[in-house]
Write a structure and sequence with these properties.
Shape: flat
Distance between the termini: 112 Å
Number of strands: 4
Helix content: 40-55%
Largest sheet: 2 strands, antiparallel
Structural class: alpha+beta
């Protein structure tokens, strides 16, 4: 029985020491330090950014190509005295001009442009021209297939070739005519 007491006391002491160690670990937790995140913002000669940090979080304002539009102002003053046989006079003119342009030197003519400098009207005209060419080519092919191809197909030996040429010629002429009509109707 002496051995049983020794084993029980040893196990009880081991459990007691482990509980004390666990309590010491829980009570003496190291203070947590809040780490500020690293933000890698790409920057260049024309970029700008502003970062605001507070208790509630972070706020970042970033402009990749700032300024995108540059301005130029020019003025002209002209004071001129006219002399002549039928009388003279004075002329006084004041002119101001303000231009907006991009860094590459493209002037802003009023209206949005894409990366290649085409305005919305230019793109609209290109799309309208493509549609008009397509419709004209279909109409030209239909007319050539209905009128010229049957007549040319009856030529011995080369009729099939002449009919194909007539069909292609009708398609090309219709495409050109469709483009002209589309340009007039779409005001391009």
């Amino acid at each position: 029985m002496n051995r049983l007491k020794i084993v029980a006391i040893s196990l009880g002491g081991l459990v007691a020491i482990s509980h004390i160690g666990l309590l010491g670990y829980v009570i003496r937790q190291p203070k947590r330090t809040i780490e500020v995140p690293t933000i890698n913002i790409p920057h260049g000669p024309y970029s700008s950014y502003r970062i605001e940090a507070g208790k509630d979080g972070y706020s970042i304002e970033y402009h990749a190509d700032d300024p995108k539009v540059l301005e130029s102002q020019k003025s002209l003053s002209l004071d001129k005295e006219r002399r002549g046989l039928f009388g003279g006079g004075t002329e006084s003119r004041r002119e101001w001009r303000t231009d907006q342009f991009t860094r590459e030197g493209t002037r802003n003519l009023g209206g949005a442009t894409d990366t290649e400098g085409k305005s919305a009207k230019d793109i609209e005209c290109i799309v309208a021209d493509a549609g008009a060419r397509s419709q004209g080519a279909m109409a030209g092919s239909a007319l050539a297939a209905g009128v010229a191809v049957p007549a040319l197909a009856s030529i011995p030996y080369v009729g099939w070739l002449a009919g194909g040429w007539a069909l292609l010629l009708g398609q090309k002429a219709g495409s050109s005519l469709g483009s002209t009509v589309g340009t007039v109707f779409n005001d391009c």
